[in-house]
User: Fold this.
Amino acid sequence: MKQAEFDGRGSRIRWTETPGANPARVYVHGLGATSAVYHAHIAARPELAGRRSLFVDLPGHGVSDRPDDFGYTLEEHADAVAVALDAAGLTGAELIGHSMGGSVAVVLAHRRPDLVSRLVLTEANLDAFPPPGADSSSIASYEEDEFVAGGHARVLEKVGPLWAATMRLADPRGLHRSAVGLRRGSDPVMRVLLEGLGIERVYLQGELSGELPGRERLEAAGVRVLTVPAAGHNIMFDNPDAFAAAVAGVG
Assistant:
């Protein structure tokens, strides 16, 4: 396990990694998740062998620290990941981001273009204020102290066992602030940032999730949008063959 201080007050972001050649692949998880659980089985596949791979846990999640005085906005998450990549000595990495992790990856690529050479986004949040049924909206519907006092436990009872297994590891206050920050979005919003990036960008949409809003505009901006068959939001579990192919750049 590796770690680096990200807030100037001793809090540390942590990651595990496997050795290999550069450019490294950096996996970033979604809201209430952890990176190794969602991505280690992908990085271990033969078509992805031989590359350095980092599995980063965002602040408030997994094995990373969870300071009470951290804002957990997309920008702050992105800056924390940048600290990790700087500490790891990386430039020009390929970022593979799922859901909120994809949003963080887009913001990071905008703020620190030296660190990112390619984006593979799995159903990343691109717009602010998603519909009320969105998972982040459900968490953000609570007041922060209400969520910490009992809302976190109620949400855990409602989500599926896979997500609950990692969400229960997340700090309730950090999880809530992350959800609020995700709903608020970045400024400019993530979709605009993604369209303006001058690097290779791949966006994966699960067939079972329905059509991606604004797909034509993304493709016009040079984003390669792939609809993954027989997959929902967690494409890396639902169709790992297609997911690994996209990460490898052959899908």
